[in-house]
Amino acid sequence: MPKRTVLRGARALVGSELDVTPEAIDLLLEDDRIRAIEPAGTQSGDEVIELPGRLLVPGLINGHFHSHEHFHKGRVENRPLELWMHHVRAGLSVELTPQQTYLRTMIGAIEALRSGTTLVVDDLLPGSRINRACLEAAFQAYADIGIRALVGPSLYNRRTVENFPFIEESFPATLLHDLRAQQIPPERELFELYGELARKRHPKRSRVAVVVSVSAPQRCSENFMRTCRRFADEHDLPVITHVQETRLQVVSGQLFYGSPMVEYLDRIGFLRPNTTLIHAVWLNPREIAALARTGATAQHNPWSNLTLGSGVQPVRELLEAGVNVSLGSDGTCSTITANMLTVVGTAAAVSKLRGDDYSRWLSAREALTAGTQGGAKALGFAGELGVLAPGAIADIVGYRLDSIAFAPLADPVRQLVYAERGAGIDFSMVGAEIVMRDAKLTRVDEKQLIAEIASEYAQLREKFDRAETTAAPLLAAMHQVYARSLAARIPPDTLPARMAPLNPGD
To answer: Are 311 and 305 in contact (CB under 8 A)?
Structure first.
C-alpha cells in the first residue's frame, strides 16, 4: 500500500497559475506524489503533519550553478565575465580531495535548501582530468542532504585561450604557446563517463542524476557539438550550454561563425526541447524566433548578469514569442550567493530597466513561474516538478506567514518574490521526504558541516591565493581582448542589454 501523508492547515500556491488558496488546506501525498488538494480537515493518512500559518510553495528550480566555485565565494568583485572567469580557471590548479569536494558541494546544497530550492543543476568543471572519486563525492553530498540534483561534468574540446577572438594580437607568443599546450579531458574519457552516468543516474529514475553540460559553442568544435547533441538525444537527457552571455560573445560569434551564436546553433540542429541556453542575454529577433520554433529554453541569470555587468535578458520579448524562460543563480565566485529567492526577486525587479512601458515589466508571478514551472519544462519535467497539483512530485517548501516578509499579508506572491530571502522557511520536502523541519535540516548536521567547510578553506586559502597570482599575465592579455571587443561593432538589430551604445560612436 502507498504511504499517505497529509500536510494540514497551510495555505498554498496551487496549479499553473500559482493561485493562492483563500483558506487552509489538506495536501494529500501518496508516496512521492501529490494526490489531492482539499479543504483542511477532510483528508486522512498514515501521517498528518500540522502546518498552520504556513504558505506552501513549489520548490524553486535553480537551473544553473557551478559547485566548483563554492570555495571561491567572495574572492572577486567588479570584473566582467571574460576577466573574472580566469580567477576560477587559474593556471595553477588546486587539487581537492574527495572529502574537500564533498564539503565544497555541501556549501551550495545547504544554501539551496535554505532559500527555497529543491532542485539544482550543477555545471561541474572537471579540470584537466576527471577525478572519479571527487565526482562521486559531489553526487554523494547531494544524496546525503536529500536535495534533487542534476550534475553535468562540463563538456568541451577547445582549450580556454581558443575561446576568444583577438588572441594573436593580445597575447605574448610564449604565453599563447603555453596555453595552447594545456591538457584538457580526452573526448573518449568524457563520453565513457557520460555513458556510465546515463545508465546509473538517469533523471527519470534517480533523484541525484546527470545532465548533458555542453560548456559553450565557442569552447567546442562543430563536430563535438553535434556529437553531444546525438548523445543527449540517444539517452533522452536534458542539455545545458552557455550562450551569448556578453557583448564579447556576440563579437566572437560574428568572427567564428559569421553570425550570432544562437543562429549558428540553429543551423547545426542543436536547438531542441529540453535544451537550455544559459544566460542568452544578447539576442536578436531572429534568434528569439528560433528558440520559439525549436522549443529550446532561454535561461535568465539576472543576479549573475548584474554582478558581472553582462546585461539584462529581453525576457518580455522571449515570453511574447512563446519561448520558455527558466532561472538560475550561476556560480558563487561571481554572485557570492546561490539564493534563488534573490534570483527570482531580481528577475522581476531588473525587468523595469528595459523600458518605460510599465505594462511590459515582469510581474512577481511571472518571475516565480520561471523559477518553478519554467525550470521544470526546461529539464523535461513539465507538470511533474515546479507546481503543486494532483499528480505532481511533492517538492514543497513551507514559509512562515508570521515572519516579517509577510507582515501585513496583502499579496503572498509579491511578498514572497520581493521580500522573502529564506528567513521564513521552516519546512521543505523533496519527493515527499522531509529534508527540513522546524527550520532544521533533517538529514545532515548543518552546524558541523559549516565548521568543517571553514576548516578546510583555511587550509586551502593560501593555495587559491597562489593560483590567482599565476593568472596575472593571462588577465593582462585578456584585458586587451576585452578592450578590442568593445571597439568591434555588432549587428544593429541586437536587442540592447546594457545602458550603453550597441556600437561605439553611435
So the answer is: yes
Quick check: 271 and 292 in contact, CB under 8 A? no
pTM of the model: 0.96
Query: What is the rounded CA–CA span in Å between residue 25 and residue 38?
Result: 6
C-alpha separations of 199 from 185, 380, 409 in Å: 21, 17, 48
At residue 490, φ and ψ (nearest 5 deg) are -120, 160
Give the list of residues 6+ apart from residue 479 with CB closer than 8 angstroms, or none.
Answer: 83
The torsion angles phi and psi of 373, rounded to 5 degrees, stand at -65, -35
pLDDT at residue 126 in the model? 82
- Of 302, 239, 250, 243, nearest in space to 276 by CA: 239
d(CA 249, CA 218): 8
φ, ψ of residue 114 to 5 degrees: the values are: -70, -15
180-221, pLDDT tens digit by residue? Answer: 998 888 999 999 999 999 999 999 999 999 999 999 999 999
DSSP 8-state symbol, 39: E
* 3-class SS string, 362-396: CCHHHHHHHHHHHHHHHCCCCCCCCCCCCCCECCE
d(CA 344, CA 302): 8
| CB atoms closer than 10 angstroms to residue 259 | 17
